[in-house]
Design goal:
By secondary structure, this protein is mainly beta. The N and C termini lie close together (9 Å). It has strands at 2-7, 10-15, 19-23, 32-35, 38-43, 46-49, 57-77, 82-100.
Length: 101
Amino acid sequence: MLAVVKIAGQQFTVKAGDSLYVPHIEGKTGDSVEFADVLMTDAGGSVLAGSAVKAVVKAEIVSDLVKGDKVIAFKMKRRKGFRKKHGHRTQYTHIKVTAIA
């Protein structure tokens, strides 16, 4: 079974057993979480979308805090002596989809 689920404003295509990195969600390693905002499901050729979908995606948190790559934003205006350097690392949660019910 395949499902498109909305997690923290982003859409992910998932199957049972998939492992993925999603924007940081609350919880500890080993906790189970459920995502009820399922946009579409595909079960053996029968596709359901919109309000007809009554599925829930169940997942387990593998690692509660994973930092992404460092992103640096550097601004400069030539001949003015203006330089600004900002950087950040986005935080993710590593989850493993256990079931789509």
